């Protein structure tokens, strides 16, 4: 577990909790981890910048009040002192402003990088079921806009809080030296306004989380619209797709407006109470002056500093919103960073060979059982095919082997070792999966094949492509292996993407290969050649194939027929076809479908 993950887990045991502003600040501060010292330095510099601004106000006031005195005679020393104080104020604001911006920006970006890496690492280690149960747009929003919220708060929100207090504190200290009663009057409205501020902050917390969720929903609709644009246009549903996106945006807008309306009264109340300090200071200064307790210069000073005292504090309203939005973003990130990955073995074991055994295996998605007490073995360096009707549990068997999910009952063993007793890295190196839905990364064909082996040479990549019957079509492309495939492999046909994916699996050279409908998009011309490639592959690998296209499994050493989560038949192709069971029925229907033609009777 990374430092970021430990921090998030330690400070957010309840991801749905509504926190006060102080709690949110403590949580965001704890998130900074080893960068806290750097962030604190930036905050101190911002406070010093604001304090230097207060020094400028004080200098101006001293100059005015001195000049108003009847018996005052300016001297060279006085002029030099005023000039030095004004210069010090200006220079301090520039210097500390620059240092604060530089330090906090670098710290915020470093924190953002660490947080993104922690998120991606946790996403990698979470079970596949976690990802399938979530909307893709939600995860994308967390890695983009939510992350931006946190970064912006660290680089601007925290320093602005320090800035908001720097000038008022400087003024209050100055007033305290002039007259403690006037300083206390200036402080009174601040103390009364704080509870109102905190209450408004709590009301914003719940709406902030919901607002971020609605933003994620709108992003999901946008992603769905863009990715499905071909289908939407083909069925003339552009208006419907745009309407769905508009509806999500409208929901997001309505919630944002409701948030503003609910906050208007408490925030106006905070500002009103805070600004009541203006007449209070006027009254206190006038009362003390008329009573002969202070001079005219002190009374004038207090009147001149009124708005400089409360103006910066009013800016906390905007900071409060930034705090709540950043905290809401962290709460949403908690759903990933506090989600539990599959447990790792304390003392990982090494398999003795690469034979596979499914022992009394049971599994279900939620309350729905899929596999029921499944028991079979796959000898090392053989090809086993799994066939059956849709929903029989074939792909689930493959998904359980690399631990995309954990089994509900029983065990899966490789080389005599339960896969739960292996490290996830070791298990990943043992298995290559070629999925039914092929995904290629944006980049070149070479990059996508070499994804199976980071150090692969050109010759190794070409050898893998030849084994997957992909070399010929790749060489025919304008840029050959340097041809860019586009996002998801959009520039290639389905069959071409499938063969690149198989080449990637061959290059990885894992001892166990799982093919999930991997030949579904292969055209008849290349099907026989691909079968020959798979037959050559099985001499060195333990191969499990799931297929509806029964012609691709005829060469299998063993065929398992699944129905409703159970093995109902098992044997070689010829023996199963000669029988009268489910496989013979599937073969007959597949043969009829293969020979079907438009207009055929």
TrEMBL record:
MF (Gene Ontology): ABC-type transporter activity; ATP binding; ATP hydrolysis activity; ATPase-coupled lipid transmembrane transporter activity
Pfam families assigned: ABC_membrane (PF00664), ABC_tran (PF00005)
Organism: Rhodobium orientis
Membrane topology category: Multi-pass membrane protein
Domain ABC transporter: 356-589
Source taxonomy: Bacteria, Pseudomonadati, Pseudomonadota, Alphaproteobacteria, Hyphomicrobiales
Record flagged with keyword Nucleotide-binding: yes
Protein's UniProt name: ABC transporter
Compartment(s) where it occurs, according to its Swiss-Prot or TrEMBL record: Cell membrane
Transmembrane segments: 43-65, 77-99, 157-174, 180-198, 263-290, 296-319
GO CC annotation terms, alphabetical: plasma membrane
Domain ABC transmembrane type-1 intervals: 50-325
């Amino acid at each position: 577990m990374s430092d970021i993950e430990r921090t998030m887990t330690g400070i957010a045991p309840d991801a749905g909790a509504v926190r006060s502003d102080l709690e949110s600040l403590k949580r965001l501060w704890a998130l900074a981890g080893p960068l806290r010292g750097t962030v604190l330095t930036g905050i101190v510099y911002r406070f010093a910048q604001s304090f230097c601004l207060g020094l400028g106000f004080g200098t101006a006031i001293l100059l005015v009040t001195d000049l108003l005195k009847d018996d005052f005679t300016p001297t060279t020393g006085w002029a030099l002192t005023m000039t030095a104080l004004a210069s010090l104020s200006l220079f301090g604001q520039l210097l500390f402003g620059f240092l604060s911006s530089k330090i906090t920006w670098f710290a915020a970006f470093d924190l953002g990088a660490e947080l993104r890496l922690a998120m991606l690492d946790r996403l990698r280690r979470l079970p596949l079921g976690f990802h399938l149960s979530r909307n893709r747009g939600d995860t994308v929003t967390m890695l983009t806009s939510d992350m931006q919220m946190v970064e912006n708060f660290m680089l601007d929100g925290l320093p602005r809080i320090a800035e908001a207090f720097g000038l008022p504190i400087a003024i209050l200290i100055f007033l305290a030296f002039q007259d403690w009663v006037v300083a206390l009057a200036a402080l009174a409205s601040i103390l009364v306004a704080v509870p109102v501020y905190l209450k408004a902050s709590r009301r914003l917390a719940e709406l902030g989380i919901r607002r971020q969720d609605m933003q994620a929903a709108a992003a999901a609709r946008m992603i769905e619209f863009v990715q499905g644009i071909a289908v939407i246009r083909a069925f003339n549903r552009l208006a419907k797709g745009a309407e769905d996106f508009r509806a999500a945006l409208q929901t997001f807008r309505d919630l944002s407006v409701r948030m503003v309306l609910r906050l208007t009264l408490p925030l106006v109340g905070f500002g009103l109470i805070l600004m009541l300090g203006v007449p209070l200071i006027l009254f206190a200064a006038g009362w003390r002056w008329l009573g002969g307790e202070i001079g005219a210069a002190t009374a004038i000073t207090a009147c001149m500093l009124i708005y400089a005292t409360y103006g910066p504090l009013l800016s906390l309203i905007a900071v409060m919103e930034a705090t709540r939005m950043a905290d809401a973003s962290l709460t949403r990130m908690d759903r990933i960073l506090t989600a539990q990955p599959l447990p790792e073995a304390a003392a990982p074991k090494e398999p003795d060979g690469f034979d596979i055994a499914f022992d009394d295996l049971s599994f279900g998605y939620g309350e729905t059982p899929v596999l029921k007490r499944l028991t079979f073995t796959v000898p090392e360096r053989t090809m086993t095919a799994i066939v059956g009707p849709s929903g029989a549990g074939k792909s689930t068997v493959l998904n359980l082997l690399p631990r995309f999910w954990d089994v509900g009952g029983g065990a899966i063993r490789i080389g005599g070792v339960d896969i739960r007793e292996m490290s996830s890295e070791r298990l990943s190196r043992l298995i290559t999966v070629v999925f039914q839905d092929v995904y290629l990364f944006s980049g070149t064909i070479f990059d996508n094949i070499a994804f199976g082996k980071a150090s692969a040479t050109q010759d190794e990549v070409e050898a893998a492509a030849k084994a997957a019957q992909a070399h010929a079509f790749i060489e025919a492309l304008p840029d050959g292996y340097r041809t860019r495939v586009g996002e998801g492999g959009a520039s290639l046909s389905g069959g071409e993407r499938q063969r690149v994916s198989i080449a990637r699996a061959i290059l990885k050279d894992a001892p166990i290969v799982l093919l999930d409908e991997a030949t579904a998009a292969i055209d008849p011309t290349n099907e026989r050649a691909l079968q020959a490639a798979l037959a050559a592959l099985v001499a060195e690998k333990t191969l499990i194939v799931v297929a509806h296209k029964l012609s691709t499994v005829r060469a299998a050493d063993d065929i398992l027929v699944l129905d409703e989560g159970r093995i109902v038949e098992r044997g070689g192709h010829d023996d199963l076809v000669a029988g009268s069971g489910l496989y013979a029925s599937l073969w007959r229907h597949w043969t009829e479908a293969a020979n079907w033609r438009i207009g055929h009777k």
